[in-house]
Write a structure and sequence with these properties.
about 30% helix, about 280 residues, four-stranded mixed sheet, disordered N terminus, 3 domains, alpha+beta, five-stranded antiparallel sheet, 12 strands, Tetrahydropterin Synthase, Chain A
Length: about 280
């Protein structure tokens, strides 16, 4: 991001976009911004001009000569009186209007109090100048930028509440059957929550899996048609096979393992074989 010859732009010197794919909003504060400064707004941005906390204008794509309340003190007159700086400090805020990917992760509990991990991926974007104003009005800057991680931090409690409303009354083995209900609940809660900040929700994906790796494998084995006891036997056999134990097939079949082959019968030992009493 560069401010050269009083041209304000979101492009960096190498031509890349300073907002990128993770930044929702970026704030530039510079004392050299005066009336007549050229403001460039790219096709995927909005731009808001503020001074002393008040919004002066909202700009869409194009290049604009700024009209600020410092007139008639403009250009070189301002620099002459104030040593190159304007007595009014202006904020230029660029808003990313592209679709951005946000991810939330967390833990929910099933009806049996088993821990379930969830991952929610969703796309957001700012659709209009009014929504851009809502964003900077309701979501404060912690620094020079607002990024997708901050959006995820804000949205996290709303997503967790929507998921737990369904997961906490559903048995673990039935959660996948209700994944559509979970998705719709999250979409409804998240849409209403983000609307306050001027953010529109687009596509959304929800993935819920048991947090414990062993439970994931057991449920996967049951999903191919095994009974619970068969799933446990096959899980044991797989672990034994990983260790190189030759008795792994016996564990899967539920049969004993005999060293030296199967017994053919029981025979009495007498004097003819040299057995002593």
């Amino acid at each position: 991001m560069a401010i050269t010859r009083q041209v304000i732009t979101s492009l960096q010197r190498d031509g890349t976009d300073a907002l990128g794919t993770r930044t929702v909003a970026m704030k530039i504060v510079d004392e050299s911004i005066v009336s007549g400064s050229l403001l460039t707004v790219e096709s995927n941005h909005f731009c808001i001009l503020k001074s002393r906390g008040a919004v002066l204008n909202v700009y869409e794509t194009g290049q604009y000569a700024l009209q600020t309340p410092d007139k008639p003190l403009v250009g070189s007159i301002v620099q002459g009186f104030f040593g190159g700086s304007s007595p009014w400090v202006y904020e230029v805020i660029y808003i990313n209007r592209s679709k951005l990917l946000v991810r939330n992760e967390g833990i929910a509990t099933s009806a049996e109090m088993a821990e379930m991990s969830y991952v929610v991926d969703y796309y957001i974007h700012i659709d209009s100048k009014e929504e851009a104003l809502d964003l900077i009005t309701h979501m404060p800057f912690a620094g020079a930028v607002i990024d997708t991680k901050e959006i995820a931090d804000y949205a996290g409690p709303a997503i967790e509440q929507a998921i737990n409303q369904i997961i906490q009354v559903t048995k673990m083995e039935n959660i996948n059957e209700r994944i559509s209900d979970v998705r719709e609940a999250v979409k409804l809660h998240l849409t209403d929550f983000l609307k306050v900040y001027g953010i529109m929700l687009n596509d959304l994906k929800v993935l819920i899996t048991p947090r414990d790796e062993r439970m994931r494998e057991l449920i996967s084995l049951q999903a191919i048609g095994l009974s619970p006891i068969e799933a446990v036997r096959y899980y044991l056999a797989l672990r034994m096979a990983d260790k190189g134990l030759v008795s792994a097939p016996n564990a899967a079949a539920g049969l004993p393992f005999n060293i030296g082959g199967q017994p053919t019968g029981f025979y009495p030992l007498g004097d003819e074989v040299g057995a002593t009493r």
